[in-house]
């Protein structure tokens, strides 16, 4: 499998005299220093001479890199370098590095300005050691380590190096630029080893595109404790319980005879290489393994812009991504194909109105190319011709993708573009015939004021597209998406909802389900209604299901059970979990649902790292639409009665899917019990449950309001652990903040949300409408959906509970 990879560096550029040996024996005294000079900078060598520490000349411009490299091989591979947070990471000719007692290594420019210092943990440096392992260590008098490069790694790990949690590798900018790049490998605090993109210049990480999944999720103690690259050249995560998760398969090469390294490459690939120590002739590094297999397919909305940048197309070549631009687009940075592409034209609706579209655009057709995350509308059933035409006539549309009767219309900037031969799709890209930019709008209408205003906004919109693109280049904005959720991506282009089972419910025998779940072996969760197990139905190539074993054996409701199941069975909506079938055998009552891969909304929202604002908005829309369907659009009205984040699941695409609907009626007898427990803690339950009032769909609206606030704030509705009493009850606190005009506090100063203030404010107001104590004041779900979507204007809501602290304060203020 292994194949040779030319080293990233142009070795011919680096003609360091190999013969220069500073006989340090690995030990460097305080006061020793090195100067960056082209001619005879002699680095500090390790005792064996394998590794060198010093100024590495960067070929041209008299620039040097303070770094560690392999001293005995011509492919001068850098394994560590200093000063990475600096844009250039380089030091000019004449710079010095001194080993000092109190500040460790100090790098100064020729003018004497400090460029970088290692610092030390408390202690006085006695000496430095360039170890044969490739580790440069600062030691105190007792040979205790005060600072070492192994604990401050850049993009490479070496045998003998170990990572604790929260330590990371980050890639370099490009083959020849050693400042910090946009890929990061991190052993998370939850034990998961992930690789993700970060949105430079911040360290905000997007959803990972590779994860080992070594969390406590499955078995207690299985979370990763450290990442070990052992001296034999094996790389693995050691679990808390001592188990190992190997990153590779097969035998490692001999660490005695080979140099071995694992590098997070500038294109996001984490790979292990080896190079023989004793060699003659033209020998280079050999790839042993790399992850992920196909990085082009690993990008998705929440993993940021993708390896190739905006508007580009990623193709896998020798396991590495290569990037190109579609016709009508060109590289933003001609020297760096990984920065993305810019359109060679501006598309604007105003302008398109002026001339007929046909005169302006050509359509370029591509097969098996997709930009999976930039669509704004989906049409189905549709034909390829209609798809092409629909995009052609739509001034917002940049590209349309057609696949299996479905047409996705996409807008700029396109992200995560890739070629996938398995796709069987067609792409229609609109390309302007000439390169003209927007014409200066001339007033042509009787009411010029209005027209002018419209024209201006178009110009601004067009500009902001361009601006957005160029900002991306500088990594200032980017899609600021963060996600702490563990993802294992699958190459899967079929939504799980499309698994077609018989539209009527199937009846299963208990034995069948016992088999399907391997004797109820793997428990997925426990709810008020029962315990859920994972299973596989032997239909076709096997369909994964979640089997819910209902807790309470309900006598005397035989008929009701069937009727109710029929109602549930007839529901069909993309925001609902599908019920496949059931088992009703003696004492046993089980329900068989489709299995959703991404867990509950609760586990998604309430983690340390906030999911992206965009994604949370989509989830809120999804829940609202699902509820609207239950209330108004299915044949029999269904009141859920138990809307909460634990009952909202996320599918492969992080679409919200409501579960457990229809069960409330079935398990009526159980309700009083459940709800007494919640009473007084102000959870998701509408006040009418406690007030002898009729239960209507408005109870769901109330619960939705609470969930919406949780989605906005990424915190639980009741936070008893929060010492701050004011914040303990989410609904009260949000209303307080809302009154005080402190939207930013509500989202904890989250940049993305505040950048979308209109939506944020809208959502907060809708949520406050939903949690009105008086059910008649709450809007119905149709109105909620319309308000969320901005179709209907949202009025300023009144105080939700007239007797709450916040509202009394409000009336006090207004009296004053
Ligand atoms: C490396 O990349 C950074 C950021 O793009 C840039 O500012 C810097 O000039 C580059 N350094 C070199 C040596 O090209
Ligand atoms: C580094 O060492 C050189 C030579 O001894 C000396 O001139 C210079 O002042 C030193 N710099 C620092 C910061 O100690
Ligand atoms: C240096 O490397 C040797 C193995 O070559 C190792 O035993 C020793 O602990 C290392 N010393 C330090 C200070 O890391
Ligand atoms: C390194 O790890 C491999 C695989 O887990 C193991 O077989 C080997 O004994 C380890 N070597 C050392 C020196 O610990
Ligand atoms: C290096 O390889 C050559 C030929 O392959 C062999 O003769 C020599 O003994 C080797 N040296 C060492 C130190 O292994
Ligand atoms: C070394 O080998 C590589 C391919 O393995 C080749 O591209 C390169 O030109 C060779 N260099 C020399 C100096 O022979
Ligand atoms: C797409 O539609 C445009 C406009 O009708 C037409 O000119 C073009 O030939 C169509 N392309 C394909 C591949 O159908
Ligand atoms: C449009 O721009 C592209 C790329 O800049 C160029 O190759 C092409 O010749 C231009 N076409 C016209 C009609 O100016």
Automatic annotation (TrEMBL):
First-level EC class: transferase
The protein's name: Receptor-like serine/threonine-protein kinase
Matching SMART domains: B_lectin (SM00108), S_TKc (SM00220)
Subcellular localization: Membrane
Organism encoding this protein: Prunus persica
GO cellular component: membrane
Gene3D superfamilies: Bulb-type lectin domain, Phosphorylase Kinase, domain 1, Transferase(Phosphotransferase) domain 1
Catalytic activity annotation: L-seryl-[protein] + ATP = O-phospho-L-seryl-[protein] + ADP + H(+); L-threonyl-[protein] + ATP = O-phospho-L-threonyl-[protein] + ADP + H(+)
């Amino acid at each position: 499998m292994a194949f040779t990879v030319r080293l990233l560096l142009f070795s011919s550029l680096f003609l360091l005299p190999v013969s220069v040996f500073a006989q340090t024996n690995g030990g460097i005294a305080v006061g020793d220093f090195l100067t960056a000079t082209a001619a005879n900078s002699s680095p500090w060598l390790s005792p064996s001479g394998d590794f060198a520490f010093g100024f590495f000349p960067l070929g041209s411009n008299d620039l040097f890199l303070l770094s560690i490299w392999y001293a005995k091989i011509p492919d001068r591979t850098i394994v560590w370098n200093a000063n990475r947070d600096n844009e250039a990471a380089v030091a000019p000719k004449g710079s010095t590095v001194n080993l000092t007692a109190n500040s460790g290594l100090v790098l100064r420019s020729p003018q004497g300005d400090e460029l970088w210092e290692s610092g030390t943990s408390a202690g006085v440096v006695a000496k430095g050691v360039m170890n044969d392992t490739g580790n440069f260590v600062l030691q105190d008098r007792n040979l205790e380590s005060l600072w070492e490069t192994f604990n401050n790694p850049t993009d490479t790990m070496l045998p003998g190096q170990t990572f604790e949690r929260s330590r990371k590798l980050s890639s370099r900018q490009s083959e020849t630029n050693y400042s910090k790049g946009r890929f990061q490998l991190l052993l998370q605090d939850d034990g998961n080893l992930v690789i993700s993109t970060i949105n430079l210049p911040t360290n905000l990480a997007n959803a990972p595109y590779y994860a080992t999944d070594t969390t406590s999720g499955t078995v207690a103690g299985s979370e990763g404790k450290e990442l070990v690259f052992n001296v034999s050249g094996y790389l693995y995560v050691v679990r808390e319980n001592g188990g190992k998760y190997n990153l590779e398969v097969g035998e490692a090469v001999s660490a005695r005879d080979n140099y071995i390294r694992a590098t997070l490459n500038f294109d996001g690939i984490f790979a292990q290489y080896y190079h023989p120590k004793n060699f003659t002739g033209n020998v280079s590094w050999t790839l042993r393994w790399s992850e992920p297999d196909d990085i082009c397919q690993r990008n998705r909305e929440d993993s940021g812009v993708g390896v190739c940048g905006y508007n580009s197309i990623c193709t896998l070549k020798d396991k590495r991504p290569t990037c190109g631009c579609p016709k009508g687009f060109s590289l933003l940075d001609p020297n760096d194909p990984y920065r993305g592409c810019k359109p060679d034209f501006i598309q604007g609706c105003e302008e398109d109105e002026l001339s007929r579209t046909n005169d302006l655009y050509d359509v370029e057709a591509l097969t098996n190319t997709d930009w999976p995350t930039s669509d704004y509308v989906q049409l189905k059933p549709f034909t390829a011709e209609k798809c092409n035409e629909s995009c052609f006539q739509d001034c917002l549309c940049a590209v349309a993708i057609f696949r299996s009767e479905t047409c996705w219309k996409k807008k700029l900037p396109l992200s995560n573009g890739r070629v996938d031969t398995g796709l069987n799709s067609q792409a229609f890209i609109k390309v302007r015939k000439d390169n003209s930019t927007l014409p200066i709008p001339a007033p042509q209408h009787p009411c010029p004021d209005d027209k002018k205003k419209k024209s201006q906004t178009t110009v601004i919109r067009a500009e902001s597209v361009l601006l957005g693109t160029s900002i991306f280049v500088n990594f200032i904005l980017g899609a600021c998406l963060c996600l702490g959720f563990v993802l294992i991506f699958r190459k899967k282009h079929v939504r799980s909802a499309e698994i077609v089972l018989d539209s009527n419910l199937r009846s299963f025998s208990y034995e069948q389900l016992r088999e399907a779940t391997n004797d109820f072996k793997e428990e997925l969760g426990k709810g008020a209604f029962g315990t859920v197990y994972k299973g596989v139905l032997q239909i076709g190539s096997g369909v994964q299901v979640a089997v819910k074993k209902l807790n309470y054996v309900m006598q005397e409701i035989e008929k009701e059970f069937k009727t109710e199941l029929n109602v549930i069975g007839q529901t069909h909506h993309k925001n609902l979990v599908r019920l496949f079938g059931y088992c009703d055998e003696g004492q046993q009552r089980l329900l068989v649902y489709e299995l959703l891969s991404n867990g509950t909304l609760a586990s998604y929202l309430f983690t340390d790292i906030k999911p992206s604002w965009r994604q949370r908005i989509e989830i809120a829309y999804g829940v609202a639409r699902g509820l609207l369907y239950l209330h108004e659009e299915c044949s029999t009205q269904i009141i859920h009665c138990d809307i909460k984040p634990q009952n909202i699941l996320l599918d492969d695409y992080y679409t919200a899917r409501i579960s457990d609907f229809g069960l409330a009626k079935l398990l009526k007898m159980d309700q009083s019990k459940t709800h007494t427990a919640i009473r007084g803690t102000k959870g998701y339950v509408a006040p009418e449950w406690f007030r002898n009032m009729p239960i209507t769909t408005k109870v769901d609206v109330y619960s939705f309001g609470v969930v919406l606030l949780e989605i906005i704030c990424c915190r639980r509705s009741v936070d008893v652990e929060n010492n701050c009493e004011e914040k303990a009850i989410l609904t009260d606190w949000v209303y307080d903040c809302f009154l005080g005009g402190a939207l930013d506090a509500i989202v904890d100063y989250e940049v993305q949300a505040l950048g979308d203030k209109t939506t944020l404010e809208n959502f907060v107001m809708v949520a406050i409408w939903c949690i009105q104590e008086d059910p008649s004041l709450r809007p119905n779900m149709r109105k909620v959906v319309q308000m969320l979507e901005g179709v209907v204007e949202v009025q300023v809501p009144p105080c939700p509970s007239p007797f709450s602290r916040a509202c009394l304060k409000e009336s006090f203020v207004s009296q004053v």
